[in-house]
């Protein structure tokens, strides 16, 4: 097919609308039809402007026959054939025209077909859309012209501006992160139901929300690969139809890594680079580097390294790509295991005039440290990097070097790197059996352990503990407890096993210490504690002879772990060992035991244990202890209440409340302040201890500063504490409870209005008093439902207050007693 002579840039297509094509005329034969020999070019005089002016202004396009005649004349002039013989009957000239419908597929064009129809190269969908758009534009212009003729010039001008602005906004294209303009993105040449995947990709490219503001969203990344991967098979039949701008736009989205989680970035880039190569496109420098890296990461390491070496002249010598090229080579060779080439590449980078970063040596240090034979070479390179960076070396650089040495089991090198960070290289510890005083102490070890545990590296912290103990520095129990807690908080089975193993190791050390202390008490001379070789819990010999002894915190960590996992037998074993180890039981350990017994359906054992530990072992309970005790009541454990246990539960609840008031403890968290009073009120109300509920509410108001909020009153009115789940049944209960509480509030405010109070402007104290009185009125209503006389209930209050040990607080309200049993922290008073 001959090349086109008429080309208008309409969104980068070669389409010419009908109105324009009728006004365009050929003023001289097309250049591809006329060939002049050098002789004729010398003889023919140059055309002047006047000669062009004499040509007719309007001339119809040449027919195929005229084009054949012009071609024959051109051939005759080139071969010095007389013009008279051109086109004669003796030598007929047959000119055939072909139309390329698809790459490699041609169709012979008939003379009746015009070049305009053959040269459009537009599929049916695009032609239809363009024709519709052209017709709409013509209709719009006619409408505006009609408005101007009728004297509506201002309105026409306003509509014309709006029309131009709409077209500009609709076809402004996509803007990349660096303000690059991608124009209108579309892949032509694919239409029909079988090319639906390409149509979906075109719809994605046409979205206004894609890469809005120059930054793609996570949804853009996932959907871009979704539509492109679905269309790859269809596009592979004609890669040439995909415009370069579409390739660059797809590359920009699929290679994005800032601010989004693009886990499959390299895999997508590898596929996209292969497709662009199949389409015959030359990748830009930055794209080539990323494609080589993607090839390497996808497993084609040898091919990637070969491509990297071939690009040394194109990419390794340009200032724009010099640094990125050599850094990529260093990283790939380090991962490939060729540290010699990596060192040469890093040496080229460091010695260059470019603004190179000596931190590129860190990957080489990591690769060398993994091999025991080259660990000293890794240390030498680390020192070279530290000298090159000087004062610009940051704490993050030291952390990375320390981490890689620890990961390679080079603990001595890691220790020296940490010492360099702390003392600026002034202290040397390598190869020394006993560490210097500045390093060999608990404070230095504690700083390192705290940094490692805070960075989420408890395994490295344990490695440091084991190594420093060989240097004469034994970790303190507090430091090891922190390590055990970090392992347990991870909730990973392997880490929990490590924590339990270390904790029991400390427990055995504590047991040996107690045993030797007892022997020493029976002897006149001191007994030395030697290293032990005892089996662990699993029957295996311990690898680490821990010399730190377990404390009450160690036992508490194990107790909490066993209680949360429901290992009641292990918790009982720990309890027995704690008594043999002469560890003073804490309230925290007591709380775990109570919860464990309660979950194991041994509530009576839990209560007996509480009484033994608080009365005989003098353990001081806290607020969490009493919260656990109230949860041992059958009314809180059983789905169906047991009427035979109500009387015993009432007695236990009053005992727990009395002990709670007498014990010296304070609230330590907002959660406890929320759950403890709520649990107490619900428990006593479900136990039908109406006098106890009133006395408990009055007491908690004085020593807790607690006033029941309105949502809690609604839950108490419904008798259910699980109304937070929005079910149909719960919504009905909430509506019923809200009506009950609203009625009690209205009754209370009516009484206030009769007493002359302004109910529309209640003070904070009056609102607090109102909620407390509403609670008591609610309890009276519940008591009447169970045929309890209100007058009798009032007489029962003093008896209940005496039994609960709060008569001076709830009835007489003695300020000294209230101050002595106040449970809020002093700073909150």
UniProtKB/TrEMBL annotation:
InterPro entries: PPR-containing_protein (IPR050667), TPR-like_helical_dom_sf (IPR011990). Residues 39-51 have a biased composition (Polar residues). Residues 130-169 form a coiled coil. The keyword Aminoacyl-tRNA synthetase does not apply. It comes from the Eukaryota. Keywords: Coiled coil. Residues 38-68 are annotated as: Disordered. The keyword Coiled coil applies. This is Pentatricopeptide repeat-containing protein.
């Amino acid at each position: 097919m001959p090349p086109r002579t008429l080309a208008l840039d309409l969104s980068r297509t070669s389409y010419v609308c009908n109105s324009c094509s009728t006004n365009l005329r050929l003023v001289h034969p097309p250049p591809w039809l006329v060939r002049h020999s050098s002789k004729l070019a010398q003889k023919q005089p140059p055309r002047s402007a006047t000669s062009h002016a004499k040509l007719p202004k309007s001339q119809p396009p040449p027919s195929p026959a005229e084009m054949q005649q012009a071609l024959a004349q051109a051939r005759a002039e080139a071969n010095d054939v007389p013009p008279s013989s051109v086109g004669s009957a003796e030598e007929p000239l047959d000119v055939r025209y072909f139309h390329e419908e698809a790459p490699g597929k041609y169709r012979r064009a008939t003379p009746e077909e015009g070049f305009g129809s053959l040269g459009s190269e537009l599929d049916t969908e695009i032609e239809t859309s363009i024709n519709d758009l052209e017709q709409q534009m013509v209709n719009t212009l006619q409408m505006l012209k009609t408005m101007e003729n009728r004297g509506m010039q201002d309105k026409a001008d306003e509509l014309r501006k709006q029309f131009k602005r709409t077209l500009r906004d609709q076809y402004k294209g996509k803007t990349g992160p660096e303000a690059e303009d991608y124009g209108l993105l579309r892949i032509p040449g694919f239409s029909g139901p079988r090319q639906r995947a390409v149509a979906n990709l075109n719809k994605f490219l046409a979205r206004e929300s894609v890469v809005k503001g120059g930054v793609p969203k996570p949804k853009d990344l996932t959907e871009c690969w979704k539509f492109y991967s679905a269309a790859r098979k269809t596009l592979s039949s004609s890669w040439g139809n995909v415009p370069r701008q579409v390739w660059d736009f797809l590359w920009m989205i699929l290679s994005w890594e800032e601010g989004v989680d693009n886990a499959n970035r390299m895999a997508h880039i590898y596929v996209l680079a292969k497709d662009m190569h199949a389409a015959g496109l030359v990748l830009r420098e930055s794209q080539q580097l990323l494609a080589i890296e993607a090839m390497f990461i996808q497993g084609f390491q040898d091919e990637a390294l070969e491509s990297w070496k071939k690009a040394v002249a194109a990419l390794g010598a340009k200032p724009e790509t010099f640094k990125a090229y050599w850094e990529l080579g260093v990283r790939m060779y380090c991962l490939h295991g060729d540290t010699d080439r990596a060192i040469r590449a890093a040496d080229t980078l460091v010695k260059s005039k470019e603004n190179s970063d000596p931190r590129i040596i860190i990957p080489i240090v990591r690769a060398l440290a993994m091999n025991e034979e080259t660990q000293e070479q890794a240390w030498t390179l680390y020192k070279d990097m530290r000298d090159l960076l000087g004062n610009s070396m940051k704490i993050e650089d030291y952390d990375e070097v320390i981490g890689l040495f620890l990961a390679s089991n080079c603990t001595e090198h890691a220790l020296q790197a940490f010492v360099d960070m702390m003392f600026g290289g002034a202290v040397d510890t390598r190869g020394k059996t006993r560490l210097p005083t500045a390093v060999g102490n608990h404070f230095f070890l504690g700083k390192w352990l705290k940094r490692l545990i805070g960075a989420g590296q408890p395994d490295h912290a344990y490695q440091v503990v084991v190594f420093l103990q060989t240097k004469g520095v034994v970790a303190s129990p507090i430091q090891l407890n922190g390590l055990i807690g970090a392992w347990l908080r991870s909730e990973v089975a392997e880490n929990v096993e490590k924590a339990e193993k270390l904790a029991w190791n400390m427990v055995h050390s504590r047991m040996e210490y107690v045993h030797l202390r007892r022997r020493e008490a029976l002897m006149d001379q001191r007994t030395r504690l030697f290293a032990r070789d005892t089996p662990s819990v699993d029957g295996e010999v311990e690898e680490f002879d821990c010399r730190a002894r377990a404390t009450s915190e160690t036992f508490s960590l194990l107790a909490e772990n066993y209680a949360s996992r429901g290992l009641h037998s292990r918790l009982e074993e720990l309890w027995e060992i704690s008594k043999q180890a002469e560890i003073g039981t804490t309230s925290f350990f007591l709380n775990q035991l109570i919860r464990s017994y309660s979950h194991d359906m041994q509530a009576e054992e839990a209560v007996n244990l509480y009484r033994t530990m608080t009365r005989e072992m003098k353990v001081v309970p806290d607020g969490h202890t009493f919260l656990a005790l109230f949860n041992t009541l059958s009314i809180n454990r059983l789905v169906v209440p047991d009427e035979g246990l109500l009387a015993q539960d009432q007695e236990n609840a009053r005992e727990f409340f009395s002990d709670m008031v007498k014990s010296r403890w304070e609230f330590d968290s907002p959660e406890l302040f929320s759950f403890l009073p709520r649990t107490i009120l619900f428990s006593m109300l479900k136990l039908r201890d109406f006098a106890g509920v009133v006395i408990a509410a009055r007491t908690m108001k004085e020593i807790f500063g607690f006033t029941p909020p309105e949502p809690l009153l609604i839950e108490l009115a419904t008798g259910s504490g699980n109304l937070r789940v929005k079910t149909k049944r719960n919504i009905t209960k909430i509506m019923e409870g809200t009506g009950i509480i609203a009625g009690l509030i209205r009754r209370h405010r009516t009484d206030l209005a009769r007493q002359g109070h302004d109910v529309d402007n209640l003070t904070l104290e009056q609102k607090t008093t109102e909620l407390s009185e509403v609670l008591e009125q609610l309890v009276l209503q519940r008591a009447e439902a169970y045929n309890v006389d209100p007058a009798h209930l009032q007489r029962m209050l003093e008896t209940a207050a005496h039994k609960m040990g709060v008569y001076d607080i709830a009835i007489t309200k003695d300020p000294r007693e209230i101050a002595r049993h106040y449970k809020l922290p002093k700073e909150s008073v």
